[in-house]
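Students often ask why we bother predicting the structure of a whole assembly rather than each chain alone. The short answer is interfaces. A chain on its own may look different once its partners are present, and contacts between molecules only exist in the joint model. In this exercise we take three input lines together and write out one structure for the complete complex. Read the inputs first and try to guess which parts will touch.
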Amino acid sequence: MHDSTVVAARGLRHHFADMEQQRASATLGMWVFLITEIMFFGGLFAAYLVYRTTHFEAWAIGSAHMDFWIGTINTVILLCSSLLVALSVHAIQVGQNRLCAIYLWIASAMGVAFLVLKGIEYHAHYVEGAVPGSLWRLQVADSRTVQMFFYIYFVMTGLHALHVTIGIGLLAVIGGYAAKGRYSPTYHNPVHVSGLYWHFVDVVWIFLYPLLYLIPHPKA
Amino acid sequence: MATVTVPAVERENYLNTDFTVKSWLLTTDHKRIAILYLLSITAMFFVGGIAATLIRIELLTPAGDLMSSDTYNKMFSIHGIIMVFFFLIPSIPAVLGNFLVPMMIGAKDLAFPKINLASWYFYITGAGLLMYVILTGGVDTGWTFYVPYSSTYSNSNVITAIAGIFLAGFSSIFTGFNFIVTIHRMRAPGLTWGRLPLFIWSHYATSVIMVLGTPVVAIALSLVALERAFHMGIFDPRLGGDPLLFQHMFWFYSHPAVYIMILPSMAVISEVVSTFSRKRIFGYMAVALASISIAVFGFLVWAHHMFVAGMSAYAALVFSLLSYFVAVPSAIKVFNWTATMYKGSVSLNTPMLYAMGFIGLFTMGGMTGLYLSALGIDVQVHHTYFVIAHFHYIMVGGAVMGYLAGIHYWWPKISGRMYPEAWGKIAAGTIFIGFNLTFFPQFVLGYLGMPRRYHSYPPEYQVLNVMSTAGASILAVGYVLPLAYLLWSLRYGEVAPDNPWAATGLEWRTPSPPPTENFPETPIVTWEAYDYSTVREEPVAR
Amino acid sequence: MWQTLPLWPVRASTLADRTDALMIFMLAVTGFFTVMIFILIFIFAMRFRRARNPVATQIEGSNALEATWTLIPFGIFMVMFIWGAGIYMTWAQPPPDAEEIFVVGKQWMWKFQHPEGQREINQMHVPLGRAIRLTMISQDVIHGMFLPEFRVKQDVLPGRYTTTWFQTTKPGRYHVYCHEYCGTAHAGMIGEVVVMEPAAYQAWLSGGNAEGSLASTGQKLFQQLGCATCHRFDTQGRGPNLVGLYGKPVLLDDGRTVTADDNYIRESILTPGAKVVAGFRPIMPTFQGIVNEEQLLSLVAYIRSLSQPEQREPVRNRAAPPPHPAPSPTRSR
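Now the answer. The structure tokens for the assembled complex follow.
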């Protein structure tokens, strides 16, 4: 017997005994993958925490230079998009393929909106002189450590933005398959599993937002 | 009942089903992917081995006279990077694990065959990048990439090397999560956790480590690469960074990584010792749970690499204590394997010789870990040849011997041929002798004070270094022998029966080599692991 | 023969005796268990080989044995842990009356600085029988100070001081190695410690320190760089008064309290904004790039000398006497 062929109509891969095994495997696979992603971001969170503990004042100064409104609007955008993704899973569970696709596409578009706002924000940092290294122009106390804050900010949000980009593509593609009728109330695990990925991207942002944007100023 | 063996060339199996290059390079069959890994890992082993050979030749004389200091520094860096990331970490899981995990649990393939193939492509792309690094000037940071040397001062291909390692890390993560999902979800009916072969338990524990630990080193090395590119100072003290942060992040993975390297070997030893004693492993549950404990405790001890790094003494106390905890499950396994031989029916075939060698050498290596965990001793031997000897006893005397045990043990199943037993024994003996002569003198050198990564050394260390190099030359012969006779056996070896060792285990209830789908129907398991009463065959006399 | 084939390093320090005792204990214990395993495997392989024992006896296991071979090794490991920890805690805590030597490591040499003013490269003279504390820093990458005959080792970091100490028991010349890989000439970053009888050491010390003590070098630098402008000793200046500061707790403007140790002083010179003393404004300029590590050490030595004479002062320090006592400089106003 040759290598795997997809039974396209039912979606059952040849090496699985039945759909239930396939569904359970895909779901567990996505959860394990997300755990690796948590460990991946975790290293950056650890670096953030170490430096915040040893250089709290500089961290507070850095946070004060963040654009609170863009950050907050982006948080709302991602939360809403996650809601839509959850609704899309529900939609396909009750057989509403078209609605499912629409929800996924809007969520994907909201991801794009997130990236656009992020781009505007990055540009503003650049103009203000808040890009660490040779482009740095902010006049702040302990400028070296505030640059470190911004460096970590750019790396963490940059890595997050990369994951958002992947998610945008994923949701758009899955939405396309839903519109074409590939999924049904009995077979829609790819929607569920993609939703898990998007929720994860959202959760990472939920942690990034307060840690980067909401550091309180120390008492003078 | 004697097994009638249809010669492999007549029966359709996973090897002869299609001979095109495309069918190999685009395969999703876990067994073919295992062979792809076998070929690439073997190649990388010899590249790393050439670096080791040059190192040992240089160290014949106290002066650094064979090559320049920079070249020597690149030699040990390449040796470490290739051996750790491109040989030891993938070896058993990607070759034997890929081949056997589905078969041992009665499945047709792993849960995600395409991801399995993708993991191989990540691996060889990473390996390709390392080959590029070697050809364009090398990397000289050591496999540990300590900052600020690697992030600011080194003038070598650090970023490309890191990119290669990053890809190899992805390969590892994919392998790990494939195994976890497969073992959880695709076991044959009746195959409860308590009936699983210990090979599966160990690979499960290994996969957990791969999945949790690898991303952290990926991020740590990415930050080094970013710092090299953008000079922003996360690890550079001149810019407010902390070099010890890198060490913590690096070792958080790299310590559990050593358990990724040893647990699969232990997996093989459990199978081999049982089969060649014709006896259930003594203390099955203890050994299974010991694998899991090693994985768990392994994550708690990373800073024992940093006792003199400038860390707080109180932190050092905690990590020393925890390091003694992690030694206990390994000791338990050694005792259980030894006890398995008691009142067994022991046959000293090549895999069993390797397994016995493993138990002895792993014991020595593990014991010397106790010295390193003792804070007072570590002050003396940290970053000396004592450490080098310690980890080579475990990695080479342990992991590589376990790998060779597994290759020989499952060779009939993988290739349909028997290896020549006499040559197998000769190679095993050569490796054992060469290995000990190479590395035992290094314990002495280390306590005497010879630091590691030294291109030249004081003359009083020369005799021990010459002994070590002599041993290395014997060891090299020992490694070339299996390469030669295993290749020979593909054409001229005796045709293998389905179950030459009369072993338990579902993989032995298929033809040698197996058909692509492994089992025509999913088996239903009603027996415990290592139940020799269920085996119909007799072991072939060798 | 032992010249060409040494098997054990010379013991030349107080710590070496203790380290070697633990080492011998561990060799005995691990040797015993290793030999036991080897013998058992050999015996079982012979006694139970297939020709002699064609049928295996299936034995499931034994909880009693599992408990035994878990608890006994664990108990032995705890002995090793406690013993090793004891040695380590001694290594980690230099005696308060230790003599000081400052060390700067750079690619690829060691610079030793005696407080009395003697400077050495790759060679360190020390008096026999006295506790010697090394305060060390790197100018570039991580290096490592390794003195095998003293059984002492400590990483030397860029950006902050690390310390180690030893007390010698035998005169002679011993190895100094860099143990932390640091680039091209890592293997060449070696030297020797010369342990001398106290009288000989005194003679060596007094021959040729025309520059004066380290603290007096620091005092000159303190004037030259204009530090005295703000850090005055007679009245309250724009910066805290440094007399009596060394080793004392300091209240910072964000509420934290830190100890004014070597690292604090160094950090305050290089990044004054990192820790601002309560009650003072963050106006101190940075001296990053203006002073090198050796100059920083001389400033540290000078500031140490401004503390009470019985604290932290090397035995033969010839620094300037401390000025009039000033009000406590570190409380906020």
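Check your guess against this: Chain A touches chain C through eleven residues (CB under 8 Å).
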